[in-house]
Amino acid sequence: MLGRVNHIAIAVPDLAAATAAYRDTLGAAVSPPQALPEHGVTVVFVELPNTKVELLQPLGDTSPIAAFLEKNPSGGMHHICYEVDDILLARDRLVEAGARVLGDGQPKTGAHGKPVLFLHPKDFFGTLIELEQA
Amino acid sequence: MLGRVNHIAIAVPDLAAATAAYRDTLGAAVSPPQALPEHGVTVVFVELPNTKVELLQPLGDTSPIAAFLEKNPSGGMHHICYEVDDILLARDRLVEAGARVLGDGQPKTGAHGKPVLFLHPKDFFGTLIELEQA
């Protein structure tokens, strides 16, 4: 069921500083910042040859990464996003296997404009998993 | 400088249960467990089309992931490993840019038999970064 790793998301308190670290210190190609107010984050894409890292900074008062940064003020790895061919089929198999889908169980439109779901980290050993229909 | 994401490492308290979750619930291809006593871990590789996830369980009394699991008893994302062409060149550039290399600054032989270094997570917004000479 799991396809490619679409991205690894890293929450950071200071997006400009994190972007500079990945660009200047680590020598990676980075995108300009993109504000995604409907997702409560500003994102910078770090382009690697086989996948990407997404640096996320909270945007607005109800950012989904605000609680994570309260617990981890320096930042940290927030989630892994895997691609799936059919997100409804994936969801139904996961629910049947006993895994919990966050929210109301309906796919939402993710930051890339595609249907996404998040799985409960307690079912996957502390890792928040995002599934995106590729 | 940064090349491919070689792997994403996830520390887990119960490798058999985590392997079953990735294989049976998430439908991924997983390897048999490999004990790496010289690295203080037992590892299962989760093979994705473009990279891999490594599930790590402590092995022995001085495992490098023991402290992480004390802080995160359910498990969690532990580090990201990026490939580099020349690890000594990468190290020298990083040190010149002010980043801290863990240990004595000399590459060690990593779990894949290749030279590796770890960078201080405080310099990279809470993310532990491993560099592996590809």
UniProtKB/TrEMBL annotation, chains A, B:
<dbReference type="GO" id="GO:0046872">
    <property type="term" value="F:metal ion binding"/>
</dbReference>
<keyword id="KW-0479">Metal-binding</keyword>
<keyword id="KW-0413">Isomerase</keyword>
<feature type="domain" description="VOC">
    <location>
        <begin position="4"/>
        <end position="134"/>
    </location>
</feature>
<dbReference type="Pfam" id="PF13669">
    <property type="entry name" value="Glyoxalase_4"/>
</dbReference>
<comment type="similarity">
    <text>Belongs to the methylmalonyl-CoA epimerase family.</text>
</comment>
<dbReference type="InterPro" id="IPR017515">
    <property type="entry name" value="MeMalonyl-CoA_epimerase"/>
</dbReference>
<dbReference type="GO" id="GO:0046491">
    <property type="term" value="P:L-methylmalonyl-CoA metabolic process"/>
</dbReference>
<dbReference type="InterPro" id="IPR037523">
    <property type="entry name" value="VOC_core"/>
</dbReference>
<dbReference type="InterPro" id="IPR051785">
    <property type="entry name" value="MMCE/EMCE_epimerase"/>
</dbReference>
<dbReference type="GO" id="GO:0004493">
    <property type="term" value="F:methylmalonyl-CoA epimerase activity"/>
</dbReference>
<keyword id="KW-0170">Cobalt</keyword>
<dbReference type="InterPro" id="IPR029068">
    <property type="entry name" value="Glyas_Bleomycin-R_OHBP_Dase"/>
</dbReference>
<protein>
    <recommendedName>
        <fullName>methylmalonyl-CoA epimerase</fullName>
        <ecNumber>5.1.99.1</ecNumber>
    </recommendedName>
</protein>
